[in-house]
User: Fold this.
Amino acid sequence: MKLPVKMTINGQSYSHEVEPRLLLVHYIRETVGLTGTHVGCDTSQCGACTVLINGQAVKCCTLFAVQADGANIMTIEGLAKDGELHPIQQGFWEKHGLQCGFCTPGMILSAYQMLERYPKPSEALIRHQLEGNLCRCTGYHNIVKAIEWAAEHMPAKK
Amino acid sequence: MATVAADRMFGKSIKRREDPRFITGRGQYVDDLKLPGMTYAAFVRSPHAHARIRKIDTAAAKRHPGVVAVFTGKDMTGVNSLPCGWDLRKEKKIPGVMQDLAIVPHMPLTSDAARHVGDPVAVVIADSHEAAVDGAEKVQVDWEPLPSVTITEKAAQSGAPQIHDGAPGNVAFKWEIGDRAATDAAFKSAAVTVKKRIVNQRLVANAMEPRACVARYEDATGDLTLWVTSQNPHVHRLLMCAFVLGIPEHKVRVIAPDVGGGFGSKIFLYNEEVVCSWASRQLKRPVRWTSSRSEAYLTDAHGRDHVTDAEIALSKDGKMLGLRVKTTANLGAYLSTFAPAVPTFLYGTLLNGVYTIGAIHCEVTGIFSNTTAVDAYRGAGRPEACYAIERIVEAGARGLGMDVAELRKKNFIPKFSGAYQTHVAVSYDSGDYGAAFDRVLQMLDYRKFRADQEAARKQGRLLGIGFSTYIEACSIAPSKLVGALGAGAGLYESGKVRVHPTGMVTVFTGSHSHGQGHETTFAQIVADKLGIPIEQVDIVHGDTGSVAFGMGTYGSRSASVGGTAILMSLNKVIEKGKKIAAHLLEASPGDIEFGGGQFSVKGAPGKAVPFGAVSLTAYVPHNYPEGLEPGLEETSFYDPSNFCFPFGAHACVVEVERETGNVRILRYLAVDDVGNVINPMIVDGMVHGGIAQGVGQALCEGAVYDGQSGQLVTGSMMDYALPKADMLPMYETDRTVTPTPVNSMGIKGAGETGTIASPPAVMNAVVDALAPLGVDHIEAMPLSAERVWKIIQGAKGAR
Assistant:
């Protein structure tokens, strides 16, 4: 049995017939073909699959695709606008906040929500807010620096 | 730190050139690949730690909709065992004694018995991932469960279940190094001897990207392409073609595209990539397999798992007279690719540390158990050596009643360059060990710390400091030497420099980057040497179809070995360029010098041609030297003359919460000496990551098997605790710079230092923190709050 789903991803609308058991992350990666969202675990620990669903940072391995029917989703591919990097992306580049790059999309989108909630986070707050994202390369030092850099360079809210 | 001239690219912290694709989600990892007609593989694995296979019934699985094929080990006729690339039996000449290594079969799909939980017995291949997984559930295996043994100390005890016919008593090998008689004599003459059990627990690498492979066989041409999460694609190809599948190497192309971390776990040839390659040839369709994280815990090679009795002999005034080490190393159920090398030649040979020690003797017993195979994990043998030394040195200082810093300072090998012959075969290249330690003491303000600690203790606070100094053998390795030690391969590296007619440069390197940033650092070497903008340089790696040959990336060898191969080719390019420039400038080649991207006549700076004009002439050779071949492309293979030996000193300050046992790291300081540095930002980043992995080992990580059932109880990220951002501090790092004389760039290697130095620093700090309670040693890691709380409750001074 397959069910219809329809959602908007990075401003583009998609509709498919999918198995009810298909995870949203596999829908995004395999069905839609946006492979910037990664799968690093099978227990919702690593955070590599973090995307924004209706503005909320969500590990999209925790949802079935059918549960996201009608949702507005942004993946890492949708963050840079008109070829211009978002300040968080720029911060990760400036501060060497990545090495192998595998956790990076999830880290960046977690940071996106973090900075919406806390525009000027302290180091301790950043570390606490990264509770749901694992990185095995950087020891987190430069990820914290990258997010601090982004916080300093975010455009003022209107 | 050394400053860098403004016009040099070597030594600059430039931003990484690979980052734009990663921060925009456009990296290309193996699991991102989708090919027309692709099938998906799912493996049927043993749920038992040890069980005989009576029968495998695949009929129901084969009938499952979408299933294309089901194979068991019996179907894989003509396929051989996965090889162990390091054979200790060959070792004869170095001062170590070896009993025969038990080389046991390791079939891609086992058909007689399963020897650890997760051992693969069948593969189901289907049109979709879901159908493959469903099909795998329908494979019926008739198991006869057998008693198992997983615990390191118990595996070689009499009465333990026998795992392989070819390894009586589950002993894989016995190995020793050093001078037993001299060490015994040193202990007899010592004023103080201290003996401790030191356990270096089993770890799982946990690269964030799980292993994956896609195999595509093209029937029309007979070509097989394997995309695989590999740190060394040529090694994968060689082992698979020559040893396992017996297929022609020149018809196989192995591609390791973007790879999401390795830490050793992606060096080895694994069952799954062999099975998928073989299956693709049978089915004539592409086959993809991606490990789930749970499968990764069961099948990625594990690391460490040593149980060691270490003993130090000291004179009254604190001179190190002798070191005696007895280690049992758990190798798991099978011998992984490098397994026997790790607890022997990469461990025993580093036990001299950075100290002048009177005599050393080390015995290692390698044992089989019903656990996942153990092989190299970041540091590989060297962290285990550093851990044993640095824990026993601090225990020795306490036994002697001497300050831990003072004892170290009394025993450092004095500054040298060229050679320091250790008691354990290797000869160090250059070192100034006391300087690194002094720097860390200075950064820490050690005297002030001890005063603050005294004050804190009076308030009942448990504040501690731990040090570690370390040495490691990098730049792996001189082929002749490792061949004598039992390596099945040479450990050189290749580097090709292709200068295009317009002066653009493509470099082909046998090193592989899976986070190290070679696309930046190698390009820095090129831009620096040729004096051209870095934008004109591209680095190609990870593809046997374009790179001549390569031994890959591990053992902190890429910059020192891979980078030197590139530099050699650059020198050849410049030499040839001088001949072309001499012709164009109507001068003698001996009078041409090269610098700043210009070939010029010595003493006549106005007479010059730019690099791009020379490259164009090489490809449009109308006005060209007689007898010189057109083109500007050079290949070099660099085989180092010795290992390089980075070193350093780390310090960790902790506070232990008495009520909960929680350990909080207040400061972590690292002074590393990795020789010359191409990109300080990247080296710092690797140091940070290494520290975090070592802190993880000390405080939270550990692969735990249930002693009864043999089940891996830490088989997911929910159960295996990886370090998170909020348990780590900002690291305070610095460097001393002692270039190696081994290679012309003076680079030693920087990828593993943090992982090597940090576990003993953290552990020593916690022991120091608990010292007022009467704690003088802690045997086991990780120091979970529960374990520390129990230690506090059991301590004399706590009652």
Summary: Chain A touches chain B through 59 residues (CB under 8 Å). The first helix of chain A runs from residue 24 to 32. The helical segments of chain A are 24-32, 87-94, 104-117, 123-129, 141-153. DSSP finds five helices and five strands in chain A.
